[in-house]
Amino acid sequence: MSVHSKKATRRRVMSALGAAALAAPAIRSAHAQAKTIVFGGSVPLTGAAAETGLNVNNGYITAVSYFNDVLGGVEIAGEKYKLELKLFDDASDPARATTLIQRQIDEGTNFFLGSFGSNIVLPTAAITERAKKPMVQTGGGSDAIFTKGFKYVFGMYPRATRQFASTAALFKTLTPTPQTYSVIWTNDAFSKTAGQGVKLSCDAAGFKKLDEFELPAKPTDVSSVLGSVRANTPDLLVCVMHDQDSLLIARQMVASNTNVKCLFQGLGPQLASFREALGKYSEYLMCSTYWDESVPYKDKFFGDSRKFVEYYKTKFTRPIAYHTAGAAACIETYILAMQAAKSTNPEAVRDALSKADYETFYSRIKFTPDGDGDAIIMGSMIGQVQKTKLEIVFPEAASSAKALYPQPTWDKKA
């Protein structure tokens, strides 16, 4: 995308968010005179996390637009409300994000949506916690977010160390059964704890660990690590890091002819942009995914996932991702909690969120006492790239295709 296109995209996004430049006040919606529920926060529209940040942002916009324009608002305790977003670009910078969140609290915002990345969600959640304002977020899974005793932050995923159990269960179903694994993570809050979760789950499932590697938070070269991988050649190579780092590893594996029977990348292959960037080499790659438009859940607002996707496509041409659906589900979860509480008081809504047991188009929503998603109810599905599409291969009840294993060597991919 050209610089001009990026600037134009950002202008459109900021306009859709209902927020202008940071120095300017938020632009009020057309429904400013009606009773309004404001959702504040920040999203990374620029910087390192922008690729997924835009997906999160689009999910928030889609949900608010649907509730306002299609449903005419929401009813809570017999009163009608319109929804308003008051989100700003945090540029993937935790310091900038915390400044933005504190400013919004000072201005009276009561309900918050999360940014993307545990390195941003953790410090911003600490601020909303001190102010006793709820945050429902789809962008941070680090254990640190859920082990500090916070009572006002709720996440749409299990904490990082609990996210790999379903993947280890899939590995045990592969034929011939894999025996060994190696794991690579980056030095950031989410990836480090996710790496620990990989080891806990794979060891418990009986796989033998050959190597573990920690990369810098922003790696630029992984050739020495891949040399070690080639020397030991695990059956399973598990990479837990953010999308752009997964792409770096896959490209350098292709370039160095580093082959394994299964390459699992926690984040990356779920994005159409990742698959397009890697082309034919994305085939057979596996990843976690928390949502697909074929999931069987239903709700009283969107109806089901396919209808959500249909509406999303009337707003955006950007390919949909599970973070998009998860972000929209944050809004829906807030509304369901407010209706259950019969209140828009922040503490009453927090209490309702802690007792949530709702079915949405995205998933059944149920949080642990620490605020992360229930490990079974809100755990991941496993996707695999097959013929350029991401097919669900686990669990069997949600699968759209069978897992393909072992993957061919890079030079044999059509």
Automatic annotation (TrEMBL):
Q: Tell me the keywords, alphabetical order.
A: Amino-acid transport, Signal, Transport
List each copy of the Leucine-binding protein domain by range: 36-386
Q: Give the signal peptide, or none.
A: 1-32
Superkingdom, natural source? Bacteria
What is one process in the GO biological process aspect for this record?
amino acid transport
What family is this? Answer: Belongs to the leucine-binding protein family.
Q: What is this protein called?
A: Branched-chain amino acid ABC transporter substrate-binding protein
- Organism this protein belongs to: Reyranella soli
Identify the taxonomic lineage of the organism of origin: Bacteria, Pseudomonadati, Pseudomonadota, Alphaproteobacteria, Hyphomicrobiales
